[in-house]
Amino acid sequence: MDELTLVERLRSEIPADLDVAAAERRWRDRALAAGAPADSPAGTAAPARRRRPRRPLLLSGVAAAACATVGATVVATHQPAEPPPPPAAVGALLDQVADRAGTDPVPRPDQFVYQDTIELRRVMNTRRWYKDRNQSWISVDGSRTGLVRLKNWIRLGPDEGVPPDGDSVLKPCGQVPPIDRPYLGDVPADPDALLRLLATDGDGTRAERQWEAVIDLIDRPAPPAVRAALFRAIARISGVRLASDSVDAVGRHGVAVTRTRDGVREELVFDPVTHRYLGTRNVVTRSSDQLGKRGSTLFASALVRTSIVDKVPKAAPGADVSTC
Q: Which stretches does UniProt call biased (Low complexity) (predicted)?
């Protein structure tokens, strides 16, 4: 097989709706600006912050699409500490996702962001699942009392780690670092600054720390500019791949950006037409006694609805109280 045939085959595996040519042009511009020849050879290359109980790593991805197009992983030799540019298909998709996110409305400081999320979680070492609905009203400036409302649809015993039904009142934040706030209003709206911030905590390699932080932050509300920067930052994390088909917790199919670690592939699922973030899924990629068979799903989520509101519902009697 000659090189031209191989390149054509790789291109045929990339989803048709991804603007690969534009991504290649952006790569060429970056390479030339850095002083690297555009035809240079390809390079090679926790305690989580999450506020919810740590969930098992999610769903499997479909085969990583189109490794990368020619020259997509070139790195300027004078910047060895920086991760290589993303595969063209991943970068093209997340550019579209970021552009769409940047058009969302901006809430006022005195408002709340409402989110309605469904989660499916397999109880480890069993074939049983539980399903919950998580509704949250998050203060934009952190100075107002918010609310989280949890409803479990499938009952399991208290010894199986299932959080109880009910309301949790979120008191004002006070002096909390921006990265730890429920609303990411003060997090940098710049991909490079975000990448540095994402790598400051956790275990593992730089890319593993960044990805773990992304999984923690992806469901938190944020200003449109911050979410757009986060999506562009994800594309620059080493090891991310593209899955041409995935499915969220309510059955919506989409294209996914994935990364694999410790026998599990985590996927961030996006609508292939609107480029809206849909949810997540974790799938076993290496069979084990603890995780189960290869290809089995451990967890899936779906962001069903998000909106900007002016008020928070009254909490149920006996609601828990916590800081933000």
A: 32-47
